[in-house]
Design a protein that fits this description.
Number of helices of chain A: 10
Largest sheet of chain A: none
Oligomer: heterodimer
Distance between the termini of chain A: 39 Å
Strand order of the largest sheet of chain B: 6-7-8-3-9-10
Order of helices and strands of chain A: HHHHHHHHHH
CATH superfamily of the largest domain in chain B: P-loop containing nucleotide triphosphate hydrolases
Number of helices of chain B: 10
Distance between the termini of chain B: 35 Å
Order of helices and strands of chain B: EEEHEEEHHHEHEHEEHEHEEHEH
Strand content of chain A: under 5%
CATH class of the largest domain in chain B: Alpha Beta
Helix content of chain A: over 70%
Largest interface: A-B, 29 and 44 residues
CATH topology of the largest domain in chain B: Rossmann fold
Number of strands of chain A: 0
Number of domains of chain B: 2
Radius of gyration of chain B: 24 Å
Shape of chain A: globular
Shape of chain B: elongated
Strand content of chain B: 25-35%
Structural class of chain B: alpha/beta
């Protein structure tokens, strides 16, 4: 683990904000377990729990908390300067932070999705959801990490993307789905484990290509923005 | 030995000009960066440190630009004013992280030496969030010094330090300057600058108002009479003689001695011993009383 990744991980787990990661996965697994224990037909609870809660809320919100937390908090409190005054390529800094963010998001979202998917249908569906969540974790965190360097309100903009773009427009305006990471995750998971519980609305090639664009584009833009990181002369 | 150079540097935000056409060269030694609040000191420091792109002009260290050039941090250390440290780390972990990010061959040894320099060894294993402001500041200085940079920039480095820590930091900056490091520090407390450095860069309203040894700067202000406090064996007779001198523009007599205003520093200091000798007057005290940094600074602000 690099020094930057070590500091990032210590910072992430040392903040109270990390406690926000716990309730949503617990809710997901709890609801799945509850439905399973009452023998509710998976066709009735699978879509709302796995897709509407797991893929539309747990995964992106976790990625938002982690993706903006690994860099945005350091930008806000100024500690990023400690790392930036080192003769390191800015790509090393972004890749280290992205690595931590992807790892934490993937584990936090993929594990409960795997458990819920297994309860709903099969281990194969669980694995498909976990794989989709891992890919989604890469795309979401790269996107939110980039937002932390593009705007002073990355959390607000991230929420707008999740709630308005994916949650609202994604349901009614079919064209917006091409730019929806949630749709890529559903399409990929659906392809790995085809069931009635998941309905992909974009094709697999689109999902793969667009996920790659989010990951690569977000990362490159973040590296470039970090190279031009400015401090305002606000003091005197 | 490194040279920090600003060539015709300006920085503006929209219609507001924060820094206006500043050119300066900083070589080895300690230099104070002075200016009233809002003068542009921090903007200049940020441009020097590569954290702000000049709107016009160039900022270089040994010919290499500081903007978008991380390699420059091999020779540059920065302690900015914002008190930002990773509070969850101990001072040792914080400075060690700096040493590792600099890829120093003996990072633990370098970290220990840097903490020793700022007298933080005893508290090095406590988390930084438990420190006082002064201890945090010293920890940040240690992190900036861990790779022994040729150029060290410090924005208000004495903030939060108690008098003993302040003295220690001043001694440290002095010794680094004497060793050939280029040190620039900003401060709004003139006594601090006066004690640490005779060389100043004064910024007023975004412009470089003066540059160099402040005593020499004072002597160049020929439009302002130099004020001297003089005590002698016969103040009144000396006053009569001095008022006839062309280099003297005014004399005040008080119980404690004379206050003499001289239009020309050189002529007056040459004439005074001669006058005293001719009249058999014994000079007991001769002090330039407006050669302090505070006087020079206030004259520059009024100009």
């Amino acid at each position: 683990m690099t020094t930057v990744a070590y500091i990032t991980a210590r910072g992430l787990f040392g903040r109270r904000r990390v406690l926000l990661l716990l309730p949503l996965p617990l809710l997901l697994v709890g609801l799945a377990a509850l439905c399973r224990s009452y023998n509710v037909n998976p066709a009735d609870w699978g879509v709302p729990v796995l897709t509407a809660l797991g893929l539309a809320v747990v995964l992106p919100v976790t990625a938002l908390i982690v993706g903006t937390g690994v860099l945005g908090s350091e930008v806000d409190d100024g500690t990023i300067v400690h790392i930036l005054t080192k003769p390191m390529p800015r790509s090393n800094i972004i890749l280290a932070k992205l690595g931590v963010a992807v790892g934490v998001t993937a584990v936090t979202a993929a594990v409960p999705l795997f458990i819920a998917g297994t309860m709903a249908d099969s281990v194969r569906l669980g694995l498909a959801l976990a794989a989709g969540a891992a890919i989604g974790a890469c795309a979401y965190t790269a996107f939110f990490l980039m937002l932390s360097l593009l705007t002073r309100r990355p959390v607000l903009l991230g929420l707008v993307y999740i709630l308005v773009w994916e949650g609202l427009l994604g349901r009614f305006v079919s064209g917006t789905r091409v730019l929806s990471i949630e749709q890529y995750v559903i399409a990929i998971s659906d392809k790995i484990a085809p069931t009635d519980l998941l309905t992909g609305r974009v094709s697999l090639p689109v999902a793969i290509v667009m996920s790659s664009i989010f990951v690569i584009g977000g990362t490159l833009l973040a590296i470039d923005r970090l190279r031009s990181f400015s401090m305002a002369g606000e003091t005197s | 030995m490194s040279t920090l150079e600003l060539q015709n540097v300006s920085r503006w935000y929209g219609n507001v000009v924060a820094v206006n056409d500043i050119s300066l060269n900083l070589g080895p030694g300690v230099t104070g960066l002075l200016g009233p609040n809002g003068a542009g000191k921090t903007t200049v420091l940020h441009m020097m440190a590569g954290f702000l792109n000049p709107s016009r002009g160039t900022v270089t260290i040994d010919g290499k630009p500081t903007w978008r050039n991380p390699a420059v941090y091999r020779d540059l250390g920065l302690v900015n004013e914002r008190e930002a440290v990773h509070g969850f780390l101990t001072a040792y972990e914080f400075v060690l992280a700096s040493a590792k990010m600099h890829k120093l061959p003996d990072a633990p040894g370098a970290a220990r030496r840097a903490l020793e320099l700022v007298e933080m060894t005893d508290a090095q294993d406590r988390r930084i969030e438990t420190y006082s402001k002064g201890m945090r500041q010293r920890t940040r200085v240690a992190a900036a010094l861990v790779h022994a940079p040729q150029v060290l920039l410090l924005d208000e480095p004495f903030n939060g330090m108690d008098p003993r820590q302040r003295m220690h930091m001043m001694t440290l900056l002095h010794s680094l300057g004497d060793q050939g490091h280029t040190i620039l520090f900003s401060s709004h407390i003139l006594e601090e600058v006066e004690q640490v450095s005779g060389t100043v860069q004064v910024i007023v309203a975004g412009r470089l108002a003066a540059s160099g040894d402040y005593r020499k700067i004072r002597r160049l202000m020929t439009n302002r009479p130099h004020v001297f406090a003089v005590q002698s064996s016969d103040d009144r007779q000396l006053a009569v003689a001095l008022i006839g001198e062309t280099s003297v523009s005014g004399v005040e007599i008080a119980n404690t001695g004379l206050t003499v205003r001289a239009a020309d520093y050189g002529s007056f200091t040459r004439a005074l011993p001669r006058i005293a000798l001719d009249r058999g007057i014994r000079l007991r005290k001769l002090l330039p009383s407006d050669e302090s940094l505070e006087s020079v600074f206030s004259y520059l602000l009024e100009a």
